[in-house]
Amino acid sequence: MRDLLSELDWDKVGDDLDRSGFALTGPLLTRAQCAEVVDLFDVDEVFRSTVVMARHAYGEGRYRYFGDPLVPIVRDLRERLYPPLARIANRWAELLGERSFPAELDGLVAECAAAGQHRPTPLLLRYGPSGYNCLHQDVYGELTFPLQVAIMLNRPDEDFTGGESVFVEQRPRQQSRAMVARPRQGQGMVFPVRHRPVPGKRGYRRVALRHGVSEVHSGQRHVLGIIFHNAV
Ligand SMILES: [Fe+2]
């Protein structure tokens, strides 16, 4: 099978993140792999917990956190997406005077464990008609890796309508800026967990980002979320 991840243009991902606050990647999963991951949603054994979003006023839909050991397709994505993202994260860390991150995922997982963050955070989300996700950030403890990836598993306008991915940047002392992404099936979205560096008059400053999903009008929308830091 073609190795989709090896074909990714990470310089472009970094440039897009710097310019607009999020990046769409080339395809990360084939159509068959997307279907394989969607089917996992109903396999209870591979998950450690399930969240019904309406119960927490997070939105409308369900998501499930994968348990250890992660299913191979999710484990491989997390391991292989991490190193190029760590390079972007470390460039940002230097601009903002923040901590840097290990080059490989093993190193980050070890640091998470030392900070009491043991539980894996990759998750699978399912939205049906009227489903949506309020704007939020995915912070699970003290240790936060600054970038995350969400992979679209369905075909917009064919499998579902509505359900755009929404990003809102809160710039200090300015009005917020909204962005909308419509990834194709298999495409990934890369975006900051909490904030990113933006050049200002006196060096770089932090601009906070929240993400969410607009209302799904019809069909089912599944997304695989890859978060790299583990949870408490
Ligand atoms: Fe999220």
Plain-language structure description:
With 232 residues, this protein is an alpha+beta fold. The protein has one domain (5-226): q2cbj1_9rhob like domain (Jelly Rolls). Helix content is 24%, strand content 35%. The chain contains four helices and 15 strands. It has helices at 10-20, 31-40, 72-96, 105-114; strands spanning 23-27, 47-52, 59-60, 62-66, 123-127, 132-136, 147-152, 160-162, 165-170, 177-181, 187-192, 195-200, 203-213, 216-219, 221-226. The chain has a seven-stranded antiparallel sheet with strand order 1-11-7-15-5-4-2. A hairpin with a 2-residue loop joins strand 12 (195-200) and strand 13. The longest helix is centred in the middle third of the chain and has 25 residues, at 72-96. It starts with 9 loop residues before the first helix and ends in a 6-residue tail after the last strand. The mean pLDDT is 96. Bound molecules: fe (ii) ion (FE2). Residues 136, 138, 211 line the site of fe (ii) ion.
